[in-house]
Give the backbone structure.
Amino acid sequence: MNLLERLAAIVGPGNVITDAAGLAPYLVEERGLYRGAALAVIRPGSTAEVAETVKACAGAGIPMVPQGGNTGLCGGGVPSEDGRSVVISTERLTRIRAVDPVDFTLTAEAGCVLANLQQAAEEADCLFPLSLGAEGSCRIGGNISTNAGGTNVLRYGNTRDLVLGLEVVLPDGRIWNGLKRLRKDNTGYALQHLFIGAEGTLGIVTACVLKLFPRPREIATAMVALSELEAALPLFARARAASGDSVTACELVPRIGLDLGVRHVPGVRDPFDTPHDWMLLLELSSSRPGGLRDALEDMLGQALEDGLAVDAVIAESAAQRADFWRIREAIPEAQKREGGSIKHDVAVATSRVPEMIRRCTSAVEAALPGVRVVPFGHLGDGNTHFNLTQPEAPPPNGADKAAFLARWAEMNRIVHDIVVGMEGSISAEHGIGRLKVDELAHYKPEVDLDLMRRVKEAVDPRGLMNPGKILR
Ligand SMILES: Cc1cc2nc3c(=O)[nH]c(=O)nc-3n(C[C@H](O)[C@H](O)[C@H](O)COP(=O)(O)OP(=O)(O)OC[C@H]3O[C@@H](n4cnc5c(N)ncnc54)[C@H](O)[C@@H]3O)c2cc1C
């Protein structure tokens, strides 16, 4: 029996995809940056089938690429071009094994779509707070493997903070059962953390125990026009203090981000009568109803008096709240429609975000006159999507998307040098994948890289699990 026949015997012939049309969606990455090739896509339906699949591939010396919803932004879930690997998709691992509102836990298989888990939590009158633009298609195993962030990190933490236990198929096919519901467990190394954020390089996550929270009963959302970028910091601090630390989102929206949204994405409207350079989307929530809206209104009134804010609108309905969020969520899509974008997902200490934005903006504008800087995102976490849109001007600087994108590495170096010089991170929430392998090698201290390589060698000595990702 050859490998594909063995795999078909394990998962069923219908779950071994080898035809070009069937393979295509698994081989291209979200932004079209990478187009890989594969022997096959395998779709196991249980942990045992994942384990048998991995054993068979390992036995044949075949590299494996785990894949969830394939919404990752660094090419981590896409196989290389050599066509030697198999993609192991978790899309049939979609069972929710348990929802426990007493333990405040949810136990689910890795292929569950994030939005379905949010829904299951809500049905138990709980909240699973991980929330991001791709939640309708990303899968929890992918979220765990990229340690996804999103819009609620401020209050609830990254995915790492939301995981209590994991079940993982190791690169040799053994199953590691760490599927615990414990809040406390100090019995040596916390092994689950090895696999969180490992981008599939250490094994395949097959199931997880997630933390739930009480469901919010009151949500107050405002779009605030800032007097200047720097005003975001005291405003954010005041919102935390005034609301009993109930701020769940604090997202920065620049003028150009809103303008591009209005131009390209249906339903995006400027909530203000006059244009403002910098806006902050603030959201407060609490499981105890009453008082949040008033607290927000008072805080904003004072901020207007003190000159931190120049205008503010509080959402009066769920529809208006959705409108505010649409402004924020539309920015990446609008940028895509505007032409080429060079992206940076960087973090610095929250207090240094305005300085970082100003320094990076000056530096990239000096290097590439006409470039349009679109810095937006999770200000409350110190995480900025410092994205660049191609110049509007005619060639040589503008109009030519390919010429602009050819400067990707140069722009990365400028921005990342400044960010690392400010003790920041070159990848705050999207991971490394293939896209940032060289950047990681360039910026990570040698001791860090050495430890990471040793972990990889210990868990995956033959280097068959998602090779070429994170580490060279
Ligand atoms: C519109 C949009 C908005 C986004 N917003 C955010 C955001 O706000 N914050 C954020 O952090 N990210 C964001 N992302 C990026 C992306 O959605 C996340 O990285 C998500 O967590 C990836 O999940 P996935 O199931 O699509 O993983 P995939 O893309 O399939 O895989 C991502 C990585 O995880 C590995 N992997 C997947 N499943 C497993 C598994 N079961 N076991 C082991 N390894 C696995 C893959 O090999 C790959 O390296 C966004 C993406 C889009 C398209």
